[in-house]
């Protein structure tokens, strides 16, 4: 699989998220997707399937895109990773977070590393612009990371991208 799938994924995600803006920065939403891919590349993750899925990781939960469309356009491997990364749970916040932890802890490794990069990018933005909410967000993401490590084991917990995601999701102290 070539980098063509990554180009197509970026173009598709850009079109589907075209009217969306980042909550705190008002930048085009695609800047988040590009940041997640850049984080993955900074951690020597260059697999085209993984990077294509990283560009698409929010498209099902944030647009009218379906997994079926992704299967048809990008194949089962990319669509499956996006499936694992899509927060579609129902219920109150605590229930949704727990279900998300369960889902992500059992996800394939490429989905887990995409989630680590996603947490890193989102945590830094939220910490900068909404420190009060950052406490809640980081506590939830820390739980996700802990459950992923518990299921995956010490090799996963030793990955630099995992350790950086843990550091990014550390709950800020009250004095910050």
Relevant terms:
176 residues, mainly alpha, Hypothetical protein af1432, 0% strand, globular
In words, what does this structure look like?
This protein has helices at 4-16, 30-42, 48-56, 59-62, 67-74, 76-85, 93-105, 109-129, 131-152, 154-157, 160-168. It has a single domain (4-168), classed as Hypothetical protein af1432. The protein is built from 11 helices and no strands. It has 176 residues and is mainly alpha-helical. The model has no long low-confidence stretch (mean pLDDT 94).
Note the gap between the termini: 46 Å
Rg measurement, Å: 15 Å
* Beta-strand residue percentage: under 5%
Helix content: over 70%
Q: What would the CATH topology be?
A: Hypothetical protein af1432
Quick one: CATH superfamily? Hypothetical protein af1432
Ranges where pLDDT stays below 50 over 5 or more residues in a row are none
What is the chain-wise order of helices and strands? Answer: HHHHHHHHHHH
**Which term fits the overall shape?**
globular
CATH architecture: Orthogonal Bundle
- What's the main sheet like? none
């Amino acid at each position: 699989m070539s980098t063509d799938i990554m180009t197509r994924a970026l173009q598709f995600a850009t079109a589907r998220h075209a009217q969306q803006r980042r909550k705190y920065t008002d930048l085009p939403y695609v800047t988040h997707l590009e940041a997640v891919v850049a984080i993955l590349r900074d951690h020597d993750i260059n697999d085209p399937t993984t990077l294509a899925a990283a560009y698409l990781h929010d498209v099902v939960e944030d647009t009218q895109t379906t997994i079926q469309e992704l299967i048809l356009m990008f194949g089962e491997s990319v669509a499956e990773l996006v499936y694992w990364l899509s927060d579609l749970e129902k219920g109150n916040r605590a229930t949704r977070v727990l279900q998300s932890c369960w889902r992500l802890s059992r996800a394939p490794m490429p989905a887990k590393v995409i989630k680590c990069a996603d947490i890193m990018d989102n945590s830094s933005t939220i910490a900068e612009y909404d420190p009060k909410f950052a406490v809640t967000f980081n506590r939830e993401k820390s739980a996700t990371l802990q459950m992923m490590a518990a299921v995956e084991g010490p090799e996963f917990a030793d990955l630099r991208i995992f350790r950086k995601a843990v550091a990014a999701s550390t709950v800020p102290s009250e004095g910050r």
